[in-house]
Design a protein that fits this description.
By secondary structure, the protein is of the alpha+beta class. It has helices at residues 2-12, 17-24, 28-35, 43-53, 57-62, 68-76, 117-123, 127-131, 201-204, 245-266, and strands at 109-112, 135-136, 147-151, 165-170, 181-187, 191-200, 206-210, 219-222, 226-236. It has 2 domains: 2-76, Orthogonal Bundle (434 Repressor (Amino-terminal Domain)); 109-236, Umud Fragment, subunit A. Strands 2-1-3-4-9-5-6-7-8 form a 9-stranded mixed beta sheet. It holds the Pfam family Peptidase_S24. It comes from Hymenobacter telluris.
Length: 267
């Protein structure tokens, strides 16, 4: 079904073969070859196609969307939401999550350093941009989900220091976010920020963002401005937490008391 569905969705999205190739990060000639059944896309290209069309990978390869019934059901998912104004992507189900894979077709973790943060807002959906980013893998995270790493700046999330790399798992359904979840939030107005997210989507199409550092006041962000959300799952830092001296003093006092009690018992 790949060639049939590629032609169907390209026409529904009103894209030329050249425009489709640009969105998928491949050559225009490959789009023609895929549509004519002369070549088969790689797994990473299939994944990007499914994300671009807003359908599952399974549906892309098994469902004939050129048939009227299947096409109608799929196209309804791409219409602007009228009863769910909090739907991610500005009320539109069509979102693109580009990714890269290694030689064994395992998804990489792309690292977005501080110096690349501004460019990420323009290149987050561009496979060619992602190819230029540093990449690594963390087997301990398993294979469930897509991960990306962001180097944070500032002291709003102390004791996690500026320069720490936060590894986040892509959140597809924002409505499932639980209050207080630490996340990387990518938005058109705020850029890339690391905050605790409080879900206000059903009440007013907003997210409340809180810092762990009490010196920073919470604020709200309109869901229309949000591009991506990555739930924090791990962090990498060269800065070790500073010991809490007050706790050390308390521990010392307790130890002294224990020793005094022990001495009194012996006496």
């Amino acid at each position: 079904m790949i060639n049939t569905n590629l032609k169907f969705w390209r026409r529904e999205l009103a894209l030329t073969q050249a425009q489709m190739a640009e969105k998928l990060g491949i050559k225009r000639s490959l789009v023609g070859a895929y549509e004519e059944g002369r070549a088969e896309p790689k797994l990473t290209t299939l994944v990007n196609m499914a994300r671009l069309f807003g359908i599952t990978l399974d549906a892309l390869v098994t469902t004939d969307f050129s048939k009227k019934k299947n096409a109608k059901a799929a196209l309804l998912q791409l219409q602007p939401a009228t009863t769910e104004p909090t739907r991610p992507g500005g009320g539109n189900g069509l979102r693109i999550l580009a990714l890269t894979v290694d030689k064994e077709q395992n998804e990489n973790i792309e690292l977005v350093p501080q110096k690349a943060a501004a460019g990420y807002l323009n290149g987050y959906a561009d496979p060619e941009y992602l190819e230029e980013l540093p990449k690594f893998r963390l087997p301990m995270l398993g294979t469930g989900g897509t991960y990306r790493a962001f180097e944070i700046s500032g002291d709003s999330m102390l004791p996690i220091a500026s320069g720490t790399v936060i590894v986040g798992r892509y959140v597809d359904d924002w409505l499932t976010l639980k209050d207080g979840t630490p996340c990387i939030v990518v938005s058109s107005k705020e850029g890339i920020v690391f905050k605790r997210v409080f879900n206000r989507l059903k009440q007013g199409a907003m997210l409340a963002l809180h810092s762990d550092n009490p010196l920073y006041s919470p604020y709200e962000i309109d869901v229309e401005d949000v591009v991506e959300i990555w739930e924090a799952k791990a962090y990498i830092s060269s800065t070790f937490p500073i010991a809490d001296l007050s706790l050390n003093r308390l521990a010392s006092i307790v130890l002294d008391l224990q020793q005094q009690v022990s001495t009194m018992k012996k006496a």
